Amino acid sequence: MRLRKQSLGSRNLIGVRVEETRKKKGMKQKELLAQLQVRGVDMNASGLSKLEGQIRYVTDVELVALADILEVSVNYLLGRDEKK
To answer: Number of structural domains, the chain?
Structure first.
């Protein structure tokens, strides 16, 4: 597992929870990216890494797709809830 070289950014609220939930599910970034593609969300590995590092903004379409794929609520990803 590679460690993050940059400190966390401040461009989104969900990055930490996306990464944490993805890892708890044993899902690799590549698998998450494939599932996003199936849902029509075009994101590359760099974009996902930046999203998880809170360095890039997240669109509403991406937020909903991530919540569905990770089987959590949008509110959970936003830090408003504990689970779905």
So the answer is: 1
Report how far residue 55's alpha carbon sits from residue 35's, in angstroms, rounded to the nearest whole number: 22
For residue 43, tell me if it sits in a domain: yes
Per-residue pLDDT of the chain (84 residues; tens, 9 = 90+): 556 566 889 999 999 999 999 999 999 999 999 999 999 999 999 999 999 999 999 999 999 999 999 999 999 999 997 765
On whether residue 33 sits in a domain, the answer given is yes
**Residues 6+ away with beta carbon under 8 Å from 72:** 17, 21, 83, 84
Could you tell me if residue 5 is inside a domain? no
Question: Which DSSP string do the residues of 17-42 spell out, in sequence order?
Answer: HHHHHHHHTT--HHHHHHHHHHTT--
CATH number at residue 70: 1.10.260.40
